[in-house]
Predict the structure.
Amino acid sequence: MKILIVGPSWVGDMVMAQTLFKLLKLRDPQAEIDVLAPVWSLPLMARMAEVRHAIAMPLGHGKLDIGVRRALGKQLAISGYDQAIVLPNSLKSALVPWFASIPRRTGWRGEMRYLLLNDIRVLDKAAFPRMIERFAALAVPAVRHASELPDLPWPELQPDLTNQHLQIQRLGLTLDRPVLALCPGAEFGEAKRWPESHYAEVAAHYLQQGWQVWLFGSAKDQHGAAEIISLQTTDYQTRCFNLAGQTELADAVDLLALAHAVVSNDSGLMHVAAALKRPLVAVYGSTSPTFTPPLGKQVDIVRTGIDCSPCFQRSCPYGHYKCLKELPSQQVLTALEQVGARP
């Protein structure tokens, strides 16, 4: 079987899609899996052993441009795919497989896709409460409930050791002390961001025990990471490294693989850390771990569970952010010990 997967547009969703890739390979070890994905995600695909080729989607998220999709579909038709599995629910995401004339085009019913998909499934959200179950169900014909699925393999990223070494040299990092990785950002919005002062308390605890702290994120997270460092004593600041905005996604994956423990908001890097099998504590505020939890054996989830949480809003509707501010650093420190991250 030659299978084309139309991948999702977010880091965490793409990591969780690896469960589908693994399941397809378990069902057919000879399956050839290619993934049509955003350009930013191609290095992530390179760290998934199940993916043969990652194909760059030339359009940004949300752009239709039927002409570009038609041209790409005609180009992919040459590959002779037997099946396409479309993970996003949008109409436009199903266009390329249709233009490629792939015989079997599988996906959830979604947005007006009756003509584009010919193996169309109707989603019962209660029967498949988690995203990985919804992805995996598309690999199994006629499955009606998550309980009918086989044991699902969790995502498992393989770091690029050559790039890992290069990034250590480029950024002036050393491995002479245990690494606490902090991921204080969240692209979704402020209602996912645990306060920098709380992160700083966790960092201080591990710095006191002789660890070093690496802070990850995008360029937007540089200021918050700098604030966490500024709250440390001068001596401790020399063991803190603000990597936010200094790494591409591939670099962050390879460096996170070296962490002895990770604390992260509900973000893409949270799912990356879990897929790297790092001891992880995930902090939840406005969102819920029910739908897209981090998947790993050494993972703990902390949240306040106050009445208004989860609200799934980008910013707090009441302006108080209590679901985050009232989550003390000690709760995270206790969770870190439980997942095996002891100084």
In short: The CA atoms of residues 108 and 123 lie 6 Å apart. The longest helix spans residues 11-27. The chain has a mean pLDDT of 94.
